[in-house]
Amino acid sequence: MLTVSNLSVQFGKRVLFDEVNTIFTQGNCYGIIGANGSGKSTFLKIISGKMDPTSGSVSLEKGKRMSVLEQDHFKFDDYTVLDTVMMGNKELYQLKKDLDAIYAKEDFTEEDGVKAGELGSKFEEMGGWNAESDAATLLSSVGIKEEMHSMLMKDIDAKAKVRVLLAQALFGNPDVLIMDEPTNDLDYETIAWLENFLANYKNTVIVVSHDRHFLDAVCTHISDIDYGKINHYSGNYSFWYESSQLAAKQRAQQNKKAEEKKKELEEFIRRFSANVAKSKQATSRKKMIEKLNIEDIKPSSRRYPAIIFDRDREAGDQILNVEDLGKTNEGEVLFDKITFNLTKGDKVVVISKNSKAVTAFFNVIAGEDSDYTGKYEWGVTTTQSYLPLDNSGYFKDDDLTLVDWLRQYAQTEQEREEVHLRGFLGKMIFSGEEALKKCTVLSGGEKVRCMLSKMMMKRANVLLFDEPTNHLDLESIQALNNSIINFKGTVLLSTHDHEFAQTVGNRIIEITPKGVIDRYMTFEEYHADPKIKELRDKMYR
């Protein structure tokens, strides 16, 4: 279907890909993974023809069509929503334009009639006469109402644009579908629809995503970028992660007999196959994992941060009491009449249809915003540590080294010692010279890792996180996810990461302009409950 031959990419002295040879075959969904900077997005640009490699080639089977999820949200501003979707099939859309131009001619000739007939036949073969209704159906599937279909793209909001561009990429059943972070800015319902659509998709999908639940739901293969090469592994992300961890552990067990290692791997495959067979991905597509060879399982060279949240002391029974809390911004009611009591050990996922409301809520209870109504009170035995959505205020002094930056937040003389600070930075993969680099050169993900070092050092018994997975790579997300699961204190967090919310939270608190919905249940149970859906609709009217 899609063949990559002797592909090399080099920027100056840095070699990103070195003689890569691989094939993406029909009926499979490939999740491209790799550490930050490994070249995931670059690879997608090359195979989609948006960027040339240093050497080598990419070839698509003759007669096949490729579609790419568009990242430029302003590219189609002067087109209607419906036309934007149909432009996903460029050849079909051009045929439509050519036919419309011929029939619009005032001096329509016999020659024009012949030409229109030829174009019309081809248009019909491609399903052109159903194109508008197909595009409209697709738009409705991703939550774009019919009254928006004739609007210009520049007149709809940013989140609606994302959905339209998603429909554009899916339009016309492309043979190869390429998607870079397709779940960004999509709500839970649209992501669930997309997961189900791709799980049943008959053609080839190549996707980059930091959403582990999404990768698990749709992928038949994980394509790992490591050491400038790309290797395909059967199974979804969870299988790749767990198997690579097991293989790494076995590699470290030098004295363990080969037969024992083989038995352990076989048991792992059986256990995982039994679990995955129950998922919609496995039942709707071929069960790849059952066909695995033990030799396919190899250790990964990935470095995972050592994120460990300890507490100086255990909190008492009084954690947080919130009464009639409200917040308005420029006339917009973000939330109102929010009342709840936090219990020791709760791990709460805070959600809202308005992401600005969630961030405003966290800023209030973290003491960073005093403009609100109502009240809240932290228990006297609690200590809080906060990871905000916007951490730029913590990096105003760009000239500091990472060691000196962290030193600002040390509580005691012992904590201010360089060896102590380097220990926390080292856990977040800032070791050696890395710990001495300046804040000016930090990426978004590195800043979040610095903030996590700061949080670990505080040893608080209540942790607050507003979208902690933003900017992090899959390795850091996985490590943070595991650390919060293991944390013995209380947690309040917001996240668009489905897996994070499902595996961490035991309670859901939804803040709305008309009050709060508060339930002790998992993230998936909350969204599956029809009574809660009915209540949510009322709270946002």
What does this protein structure show overall?
The chain is α/β, with parallel strands linked by helices. It has 4 domains: 1-64 and 175-302, P-loop containing nucleotide triphosphate hydrolases (Rossmann fold, 3-Layer(aba) Sandwich); 78-164, no CATH class; 303-383 and 459-541, Rossmann fold (3-Layer(aba) Sandwich), CATH 3.40.50.300; 396-458. The protein has helices spanning 40-47, 81-86, 90-103, 110-125, 131-141, 158-170, 188-199, 212-218, 237-252, 258-276, 280-284, 355-365, 402-407, 413-416, 418-427, 444-458, 474-486, 498-504, 523-528, 530-539, and strands at residues 2-11, 14-24, 29-33, 55-60, 66-68, 176-180, 204-208, 221-226, 229-234, 320-329, 332-342, 347-351, 373-378, 384-387, 462-466, 490-494, 507-512, 515-519. The strands form 4 sheets. It has a 6-stranded mixed sheet, covered by helices on one side. Strands 14-15-16-12-17-18 form a 6-stranded mixed sheet, sandwiched between helices. Helix 3 (90-103) packs antiparallel against helix 4 and helix 9 packs antiparallel against helix 10 (258-276). The radius of gyration is 26 Å and the shape is globular. Residues 277-287 have low confidence and may be disordered.
For this structure, what is the CATH homologous superfamily of the largest domain? P-loop containing nucleotide triphosphate hydrolases
Structural class: alpha/beta
Number of domains: 4
Largest sheet: 6 strands, mixed
**Strand-residue fraction?**
15-25%
CATH architecture of the largest domain: 3-Layer(aba) Sandwich
CATH class type of the largest domain: Alpha Beta
Helical element count?
20
Number of strands: 18
Strand order of the largest sheet: 5-6-7-3-8-9
At the third CATH level, what is the topology name of the largest domain? Rossmann fold
Low-confidence stretches: 277-287
Give the N-terminus to C-terminus distance in angstroms.
48 Å
Overall pLDDT level: 88
- Oligomer class: single chain
Using only C-alpha atoms, the radius of gyration works out to: 26 Å
Taken from the alpha-carbon principal axes, the silhouette is globular
Helix fraction bin: 25-40%
